[in-house]
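Tokens in:
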């Protein structure tokens, strides 16, 4: 594969870049520093262990990076964290399922009475690069820190299960506007590959190590090859996601215009539904034409069932 025109630093939101920076014992101080900023003083991680079994991951997901971590806090408490970096269908439900699995897997094979449901705390952290929080509406938060609480008054019901979603598309601060280390981490995550060096705003030992690790020129030839593949995969995924969103946007606008012309609420709703179905059908046809993705992968990207993709494929084959 020919080498891409490269910036000075790798994109650490690619699969390869994320694993290189955060995925080894050698560099776990970087991951600890990042996670501690996300907890904002609520937890202070002193050490962490990379569990070998990605026991809640779905290997069919596209571009999935999953870290299953056992952390030890500075007060001796132990808890489990899972870090995900991918766009997924039914994102909220998947994260709820993953957290439930992490909890259920703690149960011993026998002697449940003695165990007495002494489960460790569980936290799911999702780095959302290039895609928005589902159903966020007009909200432009870049950090969603979520726990179980009472609906009526907001008091926390259960402290030991949490979800942190990092929505990078909403992080728009410039270097001069960075006020704390959380800002600095999110800034480098989003902008590393476009930076030319370590500025005064980032002049700290932990970021100095990060920048040294992320220098493209220091990668071995085989590492460059893996990174280039990962970067192309990210670009492909972003292109597909952008095309899908544009097709769906146009379909919705057309459907709403048609519904408005009819002058009836039921007509608008039916038109919107038909437009969305047509938009997804067009997305699936485009993905099938690329001959790069499996049926299950296309279903994931288009947010439809495998059966629907097979139906479009069969219709497409009949027209040939």
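Residues out:
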């Amino acid at each position: 594969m020919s080498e891409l025109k490269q910036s000075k630093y790798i994109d650490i939101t690619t699969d390869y870049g994320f694993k290189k920076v955060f995925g080894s014992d050698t560099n776990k101080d970087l991951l600890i520093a990042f996670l501690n900023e996300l907890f904002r003083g609520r937890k202070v991680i002193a050490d962490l262990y990379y569990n070998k079994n990605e026991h809640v991951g779905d290997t069919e997901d596209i571009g999935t990076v999953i870290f299953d971590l056992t952390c030890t806090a500075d007060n001796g408490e132990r808890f489990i964290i899972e870090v995900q970096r991918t766009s997924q269908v039914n994102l909220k439900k998947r994260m709820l399922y993953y957290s439930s699995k992490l909890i259920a897997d703690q149960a011993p094979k026998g002697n449940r009475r003695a165990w007495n449901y002494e489960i460790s705390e569980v936290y799911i952290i999702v780095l959302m690069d290039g895609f928005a929080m589902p159903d966020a509406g007009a909200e432009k938060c870049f950090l969603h820190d979520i726990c179980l609480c009472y609906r009526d008054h907001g008091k926390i019901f259960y402290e030991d299960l949490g979800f942190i979603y990092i929505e990078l598309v909403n992080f728009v601060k410039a270097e001069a506007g960075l006020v704390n280390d959380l800002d600095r981490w999110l800034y480098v995550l989003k902008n590393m590959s476009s930076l030319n060096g370590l500025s005064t705003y980032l002049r700290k030992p932990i970021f100095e190590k990060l920048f040294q690790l992320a220098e493209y020129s220091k990668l071995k030839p085989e590492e460059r090859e893996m990174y280039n593949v990962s970067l192309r995969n990210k670009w492909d995924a972003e292109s597909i996601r952008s095309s899908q969103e544009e097709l769906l946007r146009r379909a919705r606008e057309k459907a709403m215009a048609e519904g408005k012309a009819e002058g009836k609420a039921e007509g608008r709703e039916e038109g919107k539904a038909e437009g969305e179905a047509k938009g997804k059908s067009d997305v699936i046809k485009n993905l099938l034409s690329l001959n790069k993705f499996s049926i299950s992968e296309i279903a994931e990207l288009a947010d439809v069932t495998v059966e629907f993709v097979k139906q479009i494929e069969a219709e497409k084959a009949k027209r040939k």
